[in-house]
Amino acid sequence: MGPQVTPLSRPLIEWTERGLYCSPGDFYIDPHRAVDTAIVTHAHSDHARRGSRRYICANSSVGLLKSRLGKNILVESVEFRESFILGDTRVSLHPAGHILGSAQVRVEHRGEVWVASGDYKRDPDPSCEPFEPVACDTFITEATFGTPKYVWNRSAEHGRSIHEWWMKNAAEGWNSVLFGYSLGKAQRILAELHGRATRPIVIHPTITELTECYRREGRALAETAEFDPKAQEILSGDLILAPPSVLESADWMRRLGQHRTAFASGWMQGGSSWGRSRAYDHGFVMSDHADWDGLNQTIRESGARRVFVQHRASGALVRHLRNLGLEAHPAEDLALDRYAKLGGVTPSLFS
């Protein structure tokens, strides 16, 4: 039996106007604004922002972070599961399975263990490190797909499905334009197609440097060729990877010749209104976030007695967890004035 833990009067990780803040360690996690010390869970732009004096991330995320924020930023990198001291806290990063280098942040202080998940997924992905559960007292979880209607087919063979769609289009004289986000989704598609593609996959220029970051970290990706914006059109049954934003450029789309389109995203499940409104010819349900089952599995495996939910804070996941007997709250309840009404933290798993 370990030492008796005195519940903290304020949250170990607070909700502030600058983002999640750990006062005993004096650092922020994925801050919204410039801060002194920022622990960055991954390099997507809604988690990694410019202007902070010092960044801390997982080793495999450094190249991506510098690509996004600038080569001259001050970055300190750590191995996954390697603990380090910040102020009065012990911190470690653990794989989140979202994109290359994505991390959960484990923070320990006075016997309390909190974990901030960042974004994560539980499905296999050859382009990044697989998710690892982390035991904690309090878990701050994402919930991008935090409703029961989002359940992925875990036996899906994404590479095979995409390749078959591409080959069918090519046989009928069409190019195939597959839309996916430039960081993470594009590289996952390239990893899924490694060993299947028999010709280079044409990629939008915004994807090129990020893809090279993956290759430098040893990830096996299909061969690529950057799209030449001066080319009149592509005529040979190619697969073109591009971010969804290029749909807004009629000139760019015109250069792709006769083509069919598809979008790779969890939002394509069930023919969501988001997907239909974009009028894609095809959809691949391929998400880099946990589905409903993955969220619940992760919360169970964490052993957390208290859960704070980001993104869909007032939605189905909070209600569901409360029905299971857990203390569940929107992440905004980590603000000092709201947290005080919750009565502090529950007893530690380690007491």
What is the topology?
Layout: E1 14-16, E2 19-22, E3 27-29, E4 37-39, E5 54-58, H1 62-69, E6 75-78, E7 84-86, E8 89-95, E9 103-109, E10 112-116, E11 138-141, H2 158-171, E12 175-179, H3 185-193, E13 201-203, H4 205-216, E14 224-226, E15 239-242, H5 250-254, E16 259-264, H6 273-277, E17 282-284, H7 292-302, E18 306-309, H8 316-323, E19 327-330, H9 336-339
Parallel strand pairs: 3-4, 4-5, 5-6, 10-11, 11-18, 12-15, 12-16, 13-14, 13-15, 16-17, 18-19
Antiparallel strand pairs: 1-2, 2-3, 7-8, 8-9, 9-10
Structure characterization notes:
This protein is of the alpha/beta class. It has nine helices and 19 strands. The protein has helices at residues 62-69, 158-171, 185-193, 205-216, 250-254, 273-277, 292-302, 316-323, 336-339, and strands at residues 14-16, 19-22, 27-29, 37-39, 54-58, 75-78, 84-86, 89-95, 103-109, 112-116, 138-141, 175-179, 201-203, 224-226, 239-242, 259-264, 282-284, 306-309, 327-330. The strands form three sheets. A seven-stranded mixed sheet has the order 7-8-9-10-11-18-19, with helices on one face. Strands 1-2-3-4-5-6 form a six-stranded mixed sheet, with no helix packed on it. Helix 2 (158-171) packs across helix 3. The chain starts with 13 loop residues before the first strand and ends in a 12-residue tail after the last helix.
